[in-house]
Recover the amino acids of this structure.
């Protein structure tokens, strides 16, 4: 129960990495504020986060929904307000919401570039700023975790709009570690490698591409969303009380394998 008594907010929490992180935090004793975008539901459901909320409540923890697009600054405020109204505080923020519509560079539509930056980078900034201000008001510190990507450190021919945003999240967490450290707020990032989610489902449907990545990963398999739960719980917990400004690769060894 590493997070017992803590309130955790997770953006993009209805599926993929966000879903896995929200459930992992609840298993470790946290109450959860789950953010998600209704119009982004892969199955078209009216409330894509309800399954996750029900699962958390089934563990005996409390959970509320905080619907909204993180690209709207008001959503960050609503997430924090919801946490305080429901649970009286906010201890941990996991800024996970993100998009990656794969596209070639030379004919990249500007609306795709803008939307990716607005969701991934601006969205992270908005929710981190809102959470940080609440944590400062509380006066008890806190933990902020940005879900970046190994793509922050490498390039991608189909991701020229995406990789800069993930590098920006990594850099934002480093700067926030300095800016917020004096308030006892720790800011770190996790850098997932090739994780099977809805974002890359179509891309990884190519057997040759799956085999290529599997061979590049020393652990011999693609990552799963659940592989992020433990690292995020660690950074959110008091076990990481002196970890600030760190970037934790969660990629099965992909990045260091240059063969």
């Amino acid at each position: 129960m590493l997070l017992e008594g803590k309130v955790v907010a997770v953006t993009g929490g209805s599926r993929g990495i966000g879903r896995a992180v929200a459930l992992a935090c609840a298993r470790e004793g946290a109450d959860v504020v789950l953010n998600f975008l209704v119009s982004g539901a892969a199955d078209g459901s009216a409330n894509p986060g309800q399954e996750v909320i029900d699962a958390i409540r089934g563990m005996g923890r409390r959970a509320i929904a905080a619907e909204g697009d993180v690209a709207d600054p008001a959503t960050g405020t609503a997430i924090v307000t919801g946490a305080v109204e429901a649970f009286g505080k906010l201890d941990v923020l996991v800024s996970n919401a993100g998009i990656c519509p794969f596209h070639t560079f030379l004919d990249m539509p500007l609306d795709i570039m803008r939307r990716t930056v607005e969701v991934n980078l601006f969205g992270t900034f908005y929710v981190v700023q809102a959470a940080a201000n609440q944590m400062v008001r509380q006066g008890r510190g806190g933990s902020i975790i940005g879900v970046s990507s190994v793509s922050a450190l490498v390039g991608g021919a189909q991701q020229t709009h995406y990789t800069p945003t993930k590098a920006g999240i990594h850099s934002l967490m480093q700067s926030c570690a300095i800016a917020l450290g004096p308030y006892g707020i720790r800011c770190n990032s996790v850098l997932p490698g090739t994780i099977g989610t809805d974002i890359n489902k179509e891309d990884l449907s190519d057997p040759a591409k799956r085999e290529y990545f599997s061979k590049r990963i020393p652990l011999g398999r693609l990552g799963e969303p659940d592989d992020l739960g433990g690292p995020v719980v660690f950074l959110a917990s008091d076990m990481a009380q002196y970890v600030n400004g760190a970037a934790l690769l969660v990629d099965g060894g992909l990045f260091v394998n240059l063969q």
Summary: The mean pLDDT is 93. The two ends are 40 Å apart (CA to CA). The domain at 7-250 is CATH 3.40.50.720 (Rossmann fold).
